[in-house]
Amino acid sequence: MASKLPIVKAKALEASKFLTKNGCAYYKQMLEQNKQYIQEPPTVEKCQHLAKQVFYTRLASIPGRYQAFWKELDDVKNLWKHRQELKIEDAGIAALFGLECFAWFCAGEIVGRGFTITGYYV
Fold it and tell me: What is the C-alpha to C-alpha distance for residues 109 and 62, in angstroms, rounded to an integer?
């Protein structure tokens, strides 16, 4: 690990120089491209107001998402009741979806362990 320290230090210095040279131009370009999203005047009060708007808007969307969840659940129950009529394509799609969920779970576990397969740090 100590042998990698000078390499990491050199990379950090290189990145710092790059940001010092190009950071301001990139910042100005990004602001110019996204100026339609900037609220005037850019004050702390305006930011707090927008944060409250986002919070309460998301809070207000809960009933709609709740209803959509129960509708999806009813559709799944209906499919389970009529599983004899289920086509092989639909079963394949459901199996692939389950496999994808399991794969994302496994990937999350690996990331949570620090990108190790066995759980032990090397």
Answer: 29
Tell me the torsion sign for CA atoms 94, 97, 99, 105: negative
Q: Is the peptide bond before 42 cis (omega within 30 degrees of 0)?
A: no
Q: Which helix (H) or strand (E) holds 108?
A: helix 88-112
Q: Where exactly are the structural domains of the chain?
A: 40-81, 84-114
Tokens of 53: 């708007």
Q: What would the pLDDT profile of 11-46 be if each residue is shown by its tens digit?
A: 988 888 888 888 888 889 999 999 999 888 889 999
CB atoms within 10 A of CB 79: 13
CA dihedral over 53, 58, 62, 68, signed as positive or negative: positive
Mean pLDDT calculated for residue range 82-107:
91
